[in-house]
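Me: I keep going back and forth on a fold encoding question. No explanation is needed for now; the record alone will do.

Assistant:
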Amino acid sequence: MKKGNKISILGAGNVGATIAYTLTMDGMASEIVLVDINQNKAKGEAMDIIQGTALCPPVNIYAGDYSDIKDSDIVIVTLGCARKPGQSRIDLAQGNVNIIKSVMPQAVHYAPDAIYVVVSNPVDIITYTILKTTGLPESHVFGSGTLLDSSRLRESLARTLEISPKNIHAYMFGEHGDSAMVPWSLTSIGGIPLKTYLNSMREKNPDFKGLDLAAIEAEVHTSGAQVISLKGATFYAIALSARRICECILRDTNTVTTLSGMIHGAYGIDDVCLSLPFVLDCHGISGMNAPELTAQEQEKLLASANVLKQTIASLDI
């Protein structure tokens, strides 16, 4: 009989291994399976983590094959090539789509009822591919999307305003990539609309120059590429994002968060996966909120959707 929560991670590269480590530190699961075409890599990563479990919450973490993901509550997909310096997420598309198409039938065969959390890039395209090729329910397949972008945005605002990022509600919508947009009209600081908050700061401090919103948005767009340029890959922040998603599922939190899911008509967008505020609980994504946007914001969101649609049209999915 299965005891506790079981999470399987497809791909034991930097991202998959760091997610496994992060979940272990948090005590999120009682069983973690690492699956990778490089079996020695998966075995080594599992051994490296499990040797420290006397010092953290107990977990049975091991390397396995697709048959070992049976009865998983969550399957995290990190398969595919990583983005290289100077390469966009979209540049990865066809190669990673081909990998996903070749391996997902095995995963779905052994874990048909799991919730699939897609981290592989380009995440919106890979999420769309899995939904179109597996027949899994849309509530059970979604990407990490702009959860990380939104975290980067909150950190940037927090650093600039010298306030905790936990007190900032700010989001990126659309593609997890260069066309993602910030709905500034929805941004708030401690429950206070951003515009009101900035006006209050100006009244208190005449020297306060305000925020360069365009510069902040540009920083968020380029921050991942900057990390890749400096150290070759990004994996810590996305691992924390994956941990947060697993927490929302396993603890049934009914949390509103920006994830990449299939869109049906919201803002005039249809048949594409991109990030909007979805409700996440033990059943996966159980609903989607479509807050009112300004005309300019909606135009930018439609442009982001069109970028993804054009890419999809160019691929063999």
